[in-house]
Design a protein that fits this description.
493 residues; mainly beta; 16-stranded antiparallel beta sheet; four-stranded mixed beta sheet; 4 helices
Length: 493
């Protein structure tokens, strides 16, 4: 029955998608047919109290002295507005033009800045998602992390971000990070640095045949981790970025000989053993040791040209790169990972939209430590309808397709006069979707869904609101006959 529903669902998606490709011929206005040129003699920027004007100018593809065709003015101003808005520094960006006495144009850029400083209380879950916390652990409040985070998203007015976090509870964490994307005079290079110290009462030590995670836990903290590193990026144009990263990591798994630690095998039996040896998971680190010091090096290229970063409706995104963990080629925690992804967002007639995303990863050699086998269920490799499962792998790929329609768009006035929040925007979309994936994992560690095609589907509602907050309510099903309601959420700021 589930297969019939799934393939019927695919047919409906395909039919609706093809029917919306028909384009209507519209007569062009006289200005759209005017190919004569006009000079941009001035760019006036207002509303930016914190953000430097040269940061806004950096994101615009036009400067004083440029000549542009009159029939391209509207298109160029729209693109400039999109690029400035996608810095995530402003809640509102308006760009228009004024004809001066000499027939040249003055561009008027008016922005409303967001709040940049957030000393916010923290309430976090240690589980991968809200759904896992509720359905697997019955919303156990002992499994939460609390504390405070201080973030300044525009500390010097150059879009540089400083973040300091102090957390306690089921896990402990002290972290610091600083990111400056415009560090050189030409505003084409950037850097970031970070450091992090954490302690965990529980870590994932293995995955079952049915793709449930088994936990290694105790009455005290069972893992101590310290990491630090940085990155360097080059962005000479507007949409493409090349980045290099280097990190150092030290991880120590507390041995079970401690009287405060209780370790259980998958059957629930108490064992006096360590996570790294035979009774639990001999390939966790793949070294037979409880502690590891290793390096992570990365090289990546990304491209993003969309109308809105948080919830794109038009444009494309792609990325590819390579990461290297460890200094050797094989054995232990050494792994070389190749990754890539491509997303295309299409706008159809009558407020219909399509989003297509494909992503994949390849890890060499195929014989890997358990901590390097994360695949579907992490990062971009996700299938809606399998939120409660993880599918390990050394080679994996996922295709996600979403077909949506904007139902309504409105603004809720704020009762108090706040310049940074004059109103609360609400955009509501209805959607239907289907995902397919594949994850390869050699014997004997593969599970029920490894080494075969996986498919899921569903429908839902997306809500896009203030400060790029996105809330997703989804009803999903999968090929195992499982179905349920899932809540997703997040923000791009």
């Amino acid at each position: 029955m589930i297969k019939k529903v799934f393939f019927g669902f695919l047919f409906i998606l395909f039919t609706c998608h093809i029917s919306l490709f028909a384009q209507t011929t519209i007569d062009k206005s006289p200005i759209e047919n005017d190919t004569s040129f006009v000079v941009i003699s001035a760019i006036k920027i207002s509303g930016n109290k914190k953000t430097k004007s040269f940061i806004i100018r950096r994101e615009m593809q036009i400067i004083e002295g440029d000549k542009i065709a009159k029939n391209k003015i509207a298109e160029i101003l729209k693109q400039a507005r999109t690029q400035v808005y996608n810095t995530n520094l402003f809640i509102e960006v308006k760009i228009d033009s004024t004809v001066l006495m000499d027939a040249s144009l003055q561009l008027n850029v008016v922005v409303k800045e967001r709040w940049y400083i957030y000393p916010t209380p923290q309430f976090q879950l240690v589980d991968r998602s809200f759904n896992e916390w509720v359905k697997t652990f019955n919303a156990d409040f002992n499994r939460v992390v609390y504390g405070i985070n201080f973030t300044n998203y525009n500390i010097s007015g150059r879009r540089d971000k400083l973040s300091i976090t102090l957390l306690n509870g089921y896990s402990r964490n002290i972290s610091f990070s600083y990111n400056n994307p415009y560090s050189n005079p030409k505003l084409t290079e950037g850097f970031s640095v970070f450091s992090n110290y954490s302690q965990n009462r529980e870590i994932n030590n293995s995955t079952t045949f049915n793709h449930r995670i088994l936990a290694y836990k105790g009455t005290g903290f069972v893992r101590n981790n310290f990491s630090f590193g940085g990155s360097y990026s080059i962005r000479k144009g507007f949409f493409k970025r090349t980045s290099f990263s280097l990190g150092m990591n030290y991880t120590n798994i507390v041995n079970s000989v401690s009287n405060t630690i209780k370790i259980f095998d998958p059957a629930g039996n108490y064992v006096k053993d360590s996570i790294v040896v035979t009774k639990l998971n001999p390939v966790y680190f793949n070294t037979g040791k409880n502690q590891q010091f290793f390096t992570d090096f990365g090289l990546g290229v990304s491209y993003a040209n969309t109308d809105k970063n948080a919830y794109p409706l038009k444009g494309k995104i792609y990325y590819y790169g390579i990461t290297k963990r460890g200094l050797g080629l094989s054995g232990g925690i050494n792994v070389t990972t190749f990754f890539a992804g491509y997303s295309k967002f299409l706008t159809h007639l009558r407020n219909f939209y399509s989003a297509i995303k494909v992503s994949g990863t390849l890890k060499l050699p195929f014989k890997q430590a358990y901590i390097n086998q994360r695949a579907i269920g992490y990062g971009d490799l996700k299938l809606r309808g399998l939120e409660l499962k993880v599918i390990d792998g050394v080679a994996a790929s996922v295709l996600n397709y979403t077909f949506s329609k904007k139902l309504v768009s409105f603004k809720i006035p704020v009762p108090f006069k706040i310049k940074a929040v004059p109103y609360i925007p609400m955009n509501i979309f209805a959607k239907t979707y289907t995902d397919i994936g594949y994850s390869y994992l050699p014997q004997p560690y593969n599970g029920r869904l490894n080494n075969k095609f996986i498919y899921t589907g569903g429908f839902g509602i997306d809500i896009l609101s203030l400060y790029d907050i996105v809330i997703k309510l989804e009803y999903s099903f999968n090929q195992l006959g499982e179905k349920g309601l899932f809540l997703q959420g997040g923000t791009n700021f």
